[in-house]
Design brief:
single chain; 142 residues; mainly beta; 8-stranded mixed sheet; 9% helix
Length: 142
């Protein structure tokens, strides 16, 4: 039995979850909004361990140029929630909230973070955010 995907939202509505004083940052292909109420991460779909994205049903990786201003936002004990979204063709898919399980230790070197979703993604959500690439040519067997 398949589960329907949650309703898509606009990028502006997703970023508004961060609250007042929104500051926008980029880490690799991810857009990060930091506000008074939360930190919002908007990811591109796909699964590539070298770039930001969903790696598994509970694992999300952020990787890119160093953004020292975000270091304190990705602390395991941070009181502000991390809300994750995936950018799809027609809007942003809410993935849920997460905790940071690993990051660069020095603020000046903050160029990656390993996030764990509070609730695992369903198979349908994983398929939406990690699309299976079209099959390539099949090698001849002679």
């Amino acid at each position: 039995m398949t589960q329907p995907l949650p309703s898509l939202t606009t990028e502006a509505a997703a970023l508004s979850v961060a609250g007042a004083g929104l500051r926008r940052y980029e880490m690799g292909s991810a857009l990060i909004g930091a506000g008074a109420d939360a930190t919002v991460v908007i990811l591109e779909p796909g699964a590539n361990p070298e770039v930001s994205g969903v790696q598994g049903s509970t694992e999300v990786l952020l990787r890119g140029d160093a953004v020292p201003a975000l270091h304190s936002r990705f602390d395991f004990w941070e009181a502000l929630p991390l809300h994750l979204f995936a950018r799809l063709d027609r809007g942003c898919l809410p993935l849920g909230t997460a905790r940071c399980r690993g990051r660069s230790s020095a603020p000046a070197a903050f160029d990656h973070a390993e996030l764990e979703l509070d609730r695992p993604l369903s198979r349908e959500m994983l398929d939406a955010v990690r699309p299976v690439p079209a099959p390539g040519p099949v090698p001849e067997v002679d």
